[in-house]
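Suppose you are handed a protein chain with no further information: no name, no annotation, nothing but its sequence. What can you learn? This example shows the usual starting point.
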Amino acid sequence: MVIFLDTGFILALRNKDDVNHIKAKDIFVKEILAGIYGKIIVTDYVADEIMTLILNRIKSKAFALKTKDFLFNTTKILFLFIDNEIFYETMELYFSYSDQKLSFTDCSFLSLSNKFKDQNFHIATFDTNLGNLLANVT
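A reasonable first move is to predict its three-dimensional structure. Written in structure tokens, the prediction is:
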């Protein structure tokens, strides 16, 4: 089993001012860290989005550094780089789902769900467009 963490979920988890903070923290501690969904995975695309959003919206280098430490210094979170195969499938899916307002990163989760289909794929996201397409835990 695997669970991928989406950008909005991680930001809600890390940011006490986020409207979904309490819900994200509750799900993360009671379900995700408890291992209910298996391995916890964050992709390089999500890390890119998180760092960009923190500096553009929250405007805090300190918060960005703490979030980086959370992602990369937590032994329970595995980091996955998107490979060429996933990238090209993501590109195809991006145009196939263009009417559903999915970002390129969202489409990478659709591609990853195909790759990890034998591992009971889950996602933690507050994005309803994406969450309606995958096994969402929120």
